[in-house]
Amino acid sequence: MTSAVIVDAVRLASGKGKMGGALSGTHPVELLAHVLRAVVDRNGIDPAQVDDVIGGCVQQVGEQALNISRTALLSAGFPDSVPATTIDRQCGSSQQAAHFAAQGVIAGAYDLVIACGVESMSRIPMGTSPMGQDASGPGIAARYPDGLVHQGISAELISARWKLDRDTLDSFSAQSHQRAAAAIANGSFDREIVPIDVVNASGDTVTHTVDETVRASTTAEGLAGLKPSFRTDAFATRFPEAPWQITPGNSSPLTDGASAVLIMSEEMATKLGLTPRARFHSFSVAGDDPMFMLTAPIPATHKVLAKAALGIEDIDTYEVNEAFAPVPLAWAHEFNADPAKLNPWGGAIALGHALGSSGTRLLTTMLHTLEATGGRYGLQTMCEGAGMANATVIERL
């Protein structure tokens, strides 16, 4: 069977997902085009050799509409002959893109493909795509007569089920910033981040290379002073068990970003004189209770470990997306996972969660972490809207 290997993986440094953020003055097509150009230029690839570009984007409306992956590759100067598609599996969109890309290589449909993702949350705010529309329909209303809830409430319910107190959430969140700040200081992200020239608020052109959302001074004590974000009288009545302790400090910030992973067969890598850095080992995707919404990384991880014939003790690093602090903490509790291996360079609470970009962003960071530590296996999983999750195991070569 043909192996799908990773030759390179790149990302932009995060920008705050609001106007005035480092990347907010740049059209999302150009954010994605920039990483697409970078991943082929760094490896001497003729873009005409790319069989497909598979991208993730959640808010596919406005500047991110009309198949942004295709628009971006044309902006990047790829030839007209290169096709592209843009998919939406909510926060796991570009992780799913990587699955489809690698599975296409394994099946023999592709020789060389790019998986990527983008989200500009400053220019296309979260919630824009269904704004003013009923995105569920009568069948959902009949099945869930009390109504589904948004992810913030789900995070509260997870905190209650796994008995996670506020101090635990805030301590984990502060650690995310501290780990990310240490990684920046140590140059750990230097190889994965692609510099991009942007125009700042003063009108000057500057080169953006450092994640804007990381706050090195963050402490659990400082986060303790933040007020809960999601408590209302109606929700408090409906969910009396909710502890009401999810705040901006233990949640991922709105973020702009883009990332890309160069995937090919081993035979193509040899033909092009390129060195594979890792191979895709196993994949899974799972669904779970959409009311809790954020718990699907647990069954997805059980599935992928079973497919890989590995135990959690065999995994050298885990990237579990920090949409909210309860998500990786509940996951770690279920697997008795080593906390030192969990998001060792910080996670989305510090580095940001640019929705459609996050899947390949996590994959990029996981690859570089394995290389820096000499680890063999990495496991990535992330919660997704409506109660889903992807999980991926890669093996460093």
Automatic annotation (TrEMBL):
Coiled-coil zones: none
Residues of the Thiolase N-terminal domain: 5-267
UniProt domain Thiolase C-terminal: residue ranges: 275-396
Statement: the UniProt record of this protein carries the keyword Acyltransferase: yes
Gene Ontology terms for molecular function: acyltransferase activity, transferring groups other than amino-acyl groups
Keywords: Acyltransferase, Transferase
Family note: Belongs to the thiolase-like superfamily. Thiolase family.
Protein name as annotated: Thiolase family protein
Naturally occurring in which organism (per UniProt): Rhodococcus spelaei
Lineage: Bacteria, Bacillati, Actinomycetota, Actinomycetes, Mycobacteriales
